Amino acid sequence: MNQIHCRINGSPVAISSPGTRRLLDVLRDDLGLTSVKEGCGEGECGACSVLLDGKLVNSCILPVLAVSGGDILTLEGLRETERGRCIIDAFAETGAVQCGFCTPGMVMAAAALLFEHSDPTEQEIRIGLSGNLCRCTGYDMIVSGVALAAERGRGLW
Amino acid sequence: MNDSISNPVRRVDAYDKAAGYAQYLADMKFEGLLYGRLIRTPVSRGVLTGVELPEMPEGYRYISAADIPPGGENRIQMIKSDWPVFVSDTVRYLGQTVGILTGPDRQRLHELASKITVHCRTQEAAYTIEEGLACRGGAIHGDDNLFADFHLKKGDPEAAFSQADRIVEDTLETGFQEHVYMEPQGITAEWKEGKLVFHASCQCPFYIRKAVAPSVHMPYENIIVNQTTTGGAFGGKEHFPDVIASALAVAVYVLRRPVQVIFDRREDMLYTVKRHPSQVLFRTALDAKGRITAMDIDARLNAGAFESCSPIVLQRTIFSANSVYDIPNVNIRGRAVATNTVPSDAFRGFGAPQGIFAAEMHMSHLARELGTEESEFKRKYFLAKGGKTVTNGTVREEVLLEQMWSRAAELSGYYEKLKAYPPGSYRGIAPAFYLHGGGFTGSGEQEIINGKVRITGSKDGSAEILLSNVEMGQGTATTFSKIAARVLDIPLDRVKIANPSTARVPDSGPTVASRSIMVVGKLVERAASQLRERWGGTSDESVLVQYEHPPWIRWDQETLQGDAYPCFSWGVCIVEVSVDPGTWEVETLGVWTGHEIGRAIDEAIVHGQVIGGVNQALGYGGLEKLELSGGGFAQHTLADYSIPTSLDFPKVTSFLVENPYEYGPFGAKGAGELVFDGAAAAYAAAVQRAVDRKVERIPATPEYIMEITEA
Ligand code: FES
Ligand code: FES
């Protein structure tokens, strides 16, 4: 058993768990943060994406010990912010959502991208989303969603 | 802006999903939940001789065929019931369910599962179509390994062949394809007040109810299936959930505790159903002027170990084997071949993509052989209103393919590019044309499904739609709501639609066959208009309507003759590629596609279907290689089975042409599968032109392109 201290969605959290447990399981099972999805469990699909210190990571391949002292943001936290609302709205408006299983991860990937490039080109958006798989949309409308969020959220990013 | 129903609205489910509030099966909480893990056969064919269990800690149980309750039968009721819940003797595929291990802790369960040894006597297995046809190791099914053997005849092919100037032969092949819905298969079952209740990520709640009833010997009224928000399905959650649900039914019957099975990605890729691999042989008779006078077609599907819905998939393959072309004399034989692979099953397009790929590539090969430009050659044979299909049915709608072709050709700069990039210039552009029959084949809607829809209006001015077709990403919650809101003349947010429960909704049929909008949407439209007559928004009223068959459909299910489908949706797709002559990597430079689906209920939703369908089809055509290896699949992670990412294909240019269909709501026809049917052939034909070699197989991977180019 390890004691892990970190910040999750802005609040300090103390987790007691074997350090080798996947961050994904801690977030979902212990903390009820179920926006974080498991699509593959092998670091390939991005459904479990969260931000760790502002960087996009796959929580299914991260042992919880590795986030000690870190700052984690999940969609539960992001959706309470103006930036989060901006991306969510843009996704809903551009038809970026179909089955929705990839969507929380896509929203996190969009946030990570926009934090870095406030005015991305289409190719930069495609690169930013390339670690997140979506089987439904064929991506074009997600790309439009991110572009709309960038445009609408000028000044936010 | 006009007030056409096609104008996009914000999807009713978009916000909850984008903000992470939507609850999928894995996100739901169940009191006292146990987890379950399926225990599987380690061989593809043989006989089960024993199962060795480790010592079971308290709270862990292994449940198998011996636990089927009295009166229950060890079979899953699909169309047939050849697929047992648990193996009790004969093994037909690698990974077939032998038992289910249950217990409270997932980690512990995994460890215990890995300590179970399943012993089998191994027998020689048949994996490929050829091996199945040759009954390698003895017949698996019947005495010839054929789940179905169909014959179609149009005109007088024998006479045409006897007068042929020459005959061209061709063989086209397609591989397995994995659905890769992002949410893996999963079901929770529980025992509640004498009833067996399922919460399932699925397409067809009523199929599950029917499937599990024999194994636990329970009447339908004591089995309830609730669909949970479903993270993609594409046909993969049509019949396969029946397999998990049946094992769970027995477990929960015995344990009287909730049990959940959610597959991990590896299990899902290795042991769930796939798209049928196909092999289609053509012999085509040409006259002295190079005109096609007849075709003889032999289509074979690898159906895998159990029948599931393979005969119906095969019907779509053979009905699509002339694509959009009116060939005067045709002979078709279709066979669904039993093998020892995981059963093949429904996957978006349901057999049509295989038939259309073969037909389009064969036409493309004929054009090459005759030295005619491909689009010009194909367009000479377009079906037209009044034309005859391969089942001797009649095309009843105006066919707008010419108009769609001109638009696509113009948008893509087809003719200029054709000149600029001659064959073999490592740059290629090519078209595919396709169609998709809407709804169930033949009389199925009337004789098998007979769908019902209820709409209730309440005093508070809101209405609720009750039906069994599920939202699985394709947008039906929104489209059904739009139809009802429009007819009832109330705002969209006054229409409710929930995930269906068999305890609450009438059976409007399964969510398959591009029937949801065209057939069930029409019922929604009718129910809403009847409700509107009696309901002023101030009382509680309810209307139930039932399917009515269009009166002009003529169909004989025995001979497969007549109108296989009430109408068709139509498509054209142009793909441009460049091929790297060093690595044989293909870069897709452009995709332009047009569809005629009657009328779109929502243009944005249809656009999403088009882009998603085209990307899946390009994956099928170029990337998604799934190879057999020792009876299983060589690829079983998302790292080695590549589905398209955001970088693989460019933005798709898509347009619609309207041609409202009288029997669809607001003129709508099916769209969800059509959009998958053509892009793989266009991709393959573009690669073919780029390297100036015949492409006969998909996926056309760099290895395959190297093989044909350097040969
Ligand atoms: S679940 Fe983590 S990358 Fe797929
Ligand atoms: S919306 Fe279904 S996987 Fe992306």
Going by CATH, what is the homologous superfamily of the largest domain in chain A?
A: Beta-grasp domain
Q: How many H/I helical runs of chain B? A: 18
Here the CATH topology of the largest domain in chain B equals Aldehyde Oxidoreductase, domain 4
Structurally, how many domains make up the residues of chain B?
Answer: 3
Uncertain residue ranges of chain B: none
For the biggest β-sheet of chain B, the strand order reads: 3-5-1-12-9-10-11
Largest interface: A-B, 51 and 57 residues
Q: Sheet with the most strands of chain B? A: 7 strands, mixed
Strand order of the largest sheet of chain A: 2-1-5-3-4
Q: Label the CATH architecture of the largest domain in chain A.
A: Roll
| Mean pLDDT over the residues of chain B | 97
Tell me the quaternary state.
heterodimer
Describe this protein's structure.
The complex is a heterodimer of chains A (157) and B (711). By secondary structure, chain A is α+β, with helices and mostly antiparallel strands. Chain A has helices at 23-30, 75-78, 82-94, 103-116, 122-128, 140-152, and strands at residues 2-8, 11-17, 49-52, 55-58, 71-73. Chain A has a 5-stranded mixed sheet with strand order 2-1-5-3-4. In chain A, helix 3 (82-94) crosses helix 6 (140-152). Chain A is globular. Chain B is α+β, with helices and mostly antiparallel strands and 711 residues long. Chain B has 3 domains: 27-123 and 188-267, Aldehyde oxidase/xanthine dehydrogenase, a/b hammerhead (Aldehyde Oxidoreductase, domain 3), CATH 3.90.1170.50; 278-441 and 560-709, Aldehyde oxidase/xanthine dehydrogenase, molybdopterin binding domain (Aldehyde Oxidoreductase, domain 4), CATH 3.30.365; 444-546, Aldehyde oxidase/xanthine dehydrogenase, molybdopterin binding domain (Aldehyde Oxidoreductase, domain 4), CATH 3.30.365. In chain B, helix 5 packs across helix 6 and helix 8 packs parallel to helix 9. The mean pLDDT of chain B is 97. The structure holds FE2/S2 (inorganic) cluster (2 copies). One FE2/S2 (inorganic) cluster is lined by residues 38-41, 43-48, 58, 60 of chain A.
